[in-house]
Amino acid sequence: MTMTALPHTDSTTGKGRQAVLDVEGLDVDIRTPQGTVRAVSDAGFTAYAGQTMALLGESGCGKSMTAKAVAGLLDPIAHIAGGTIRLNGRELAGLAERDRLKIAGTELGIVFQDALTALNPVYPVGVQIGESFRIHRGMNRKRARAEAIALMGRVGIPEPESRVDAYPHQFSGGMRQRILIAMAVALGPRLLIADEPTTALDVTVQAQIMELLRRLRTEEDMAVVLITHDLAVVAEEADAVTVMYAGTVAETGSVDQVFARPAHPYTRGLLDSVPVNAERGSQLSSIAGSPPELKDIPAGCVYQDRCPLASAICRVERPALREVAPGQHAACHFADQVQDSTTLQEARP
Predict the structure, then answer these.
(1) pLDDT per residue over 256-296, tens digit each?
(2) Residues 6+ apart with CB under 8 A from 88
């Protein structure tokens, strides 16, 4: 497949800001007993300093696989088959493991969704936070411990001096997530990847974690790539959004653009599924069907089996990601009709 370079946005998103992460034409393959399948196909997006780019879509659409490719954390059975990943202008695709380790923490930080699994249960949290300072900054244990205490206080953990020697299981879910964030931002990375950072947390704690990420992004002028399936979080926290489906980019643009005038039927379906002024007993909108299995990705448009607009051209020709408004791109043969209609029925070709 020909790589499609996604141009830098001309909209207010990213204007005058440094492009920290540029992903273009990314392909990721997975080896299975039935053969090699493509998990991510021709994906591209840009994340800017001081802003949040959200990767949005259902489970299994390729969000986390894309982020793992960027971070160099693909499973042994997966590999980057094509495309470019540039972090501060430096190509990461194909980078040697030794060089990858050098940028981990210093240029790129990651917040995983399951803090209890991500943290080592046999070491105090202060030791785990301070490890980055010992490895990358050459600090002794005493100084690294002091830095860990300072970071714990910065991310909102009360009484850090007395809790620095506590173990992960002695913290609540929200506090463990704060510890993960402290570890991720310890060395001031230019890029932070947050993979479903509020999963399994209650609504109040979710809001606190997102506020913390927002504050740190502003203070450090970081670019944040936020992986989520929650449209409300995207609307509240993100500057730009890349909607993914079946491992491909369906639509991308500023949040204001995409949410106000979606140009892809999948994006419109996601937005329509959010209850607005719903009454008890009323029928809720949903997208019929399920995403295709990776081994069964159809020829033509990947969304054709669930799309109410699918026609003959959709069966044979995969739509290119094209500009439908300044800074907004969509991969749909009927993007203009979708964008100019109020319902998908009105957009029928």
Answers:
(1) 999 999 999 999 999 998 877 656 766 777 888 899 998 99
(2) 20, 107, 190
